[in-house]
Design a protein that fits this description.
This protein has two helices and nine strands. The chain is mostly beta strands. Strands 1-3-4-5-6-7-8-9 form an eight-stranded antiparallel beta barrel. Strand 6 and strand 7 form a beta hairpin.
Length: about 170
């Protein structure tokens, strides 16, 4: 009887060690550029809702409450002609009356390279006029299953309302 109890305890301990090793978190760091194109013949971000009762002159105040949907290309370099690695898909809303700040709910979906078929999602505030913005990663799929972490965004360039944003991402995942 004592032998059976010790054997079961040893098996349970071995299984716990195996599961702990199998669930060891990985850290992945990625850099890419997102192209947010709101003007021209082929926009990748489109305003779908906004204020109709605003009578002021300030265009940023007029944008408060507006919602846009995006399907932005992700590339390895700032040029739109560099290698396409995925899409940034989701919605953002102008969420501040005092600064240009977005509430972002989007998923970065990778369509090429080592992360092809994997995604991670961001949900958070993006005060776009700050030099560097930090946003939380709240989940992921594929190679980024159960992801959490953060991304640092910096505006690389702007042309009117079109922007190229550089992302440095740190993901913890299994």
């Amino acid at each position: 009887m004592a032998f059976a109890s010790k054997f079961l305890l040893l098996m349970a301990f071995s299984l716990a060690l195996y599961n702990a090793a199998a669930l060891k978190q990985k850290v992945t760091r990625i850099q890419f550029y997102m192209h947010d194109i709101v003007g021209g013949p082929h926009p990748t971000a489109v305003r779908v809702a906004g204020r109709s009762n605003f009578t002021g002159q300030d265009p940023f105040e007029a944008m408060f409450g507006s919602i846009s949907v995006m399907d932005n290309p992700l590339t390895v370099a700032p040029s739109i002609n560099s290698t396409l690695v995925g899409r940034g898909q989701g919605i953002y809303g102008m969420s501040s009356q005092e600064e240009v700040s977005l509430l972002m709910a989007l998923t970065y979906a990778f369509t090429a390279g080592p992360y092809n078929g994997s995604t991670f999602s961001v949900l958070g505030r993006n005060p776009v006029m700050k030099e560097e913005r930090e946003m939380p990663i709240v989940g992921g799929t594929g190679k980024f299953r159960l992801a959490r972490g953060y991304c640092l965004a910096r505006t690389h360039s702007m042309n009117g309302m079109n922007a190229v944003i550089g992302y440095n991402v740190t993901l913890l995942h299994y």
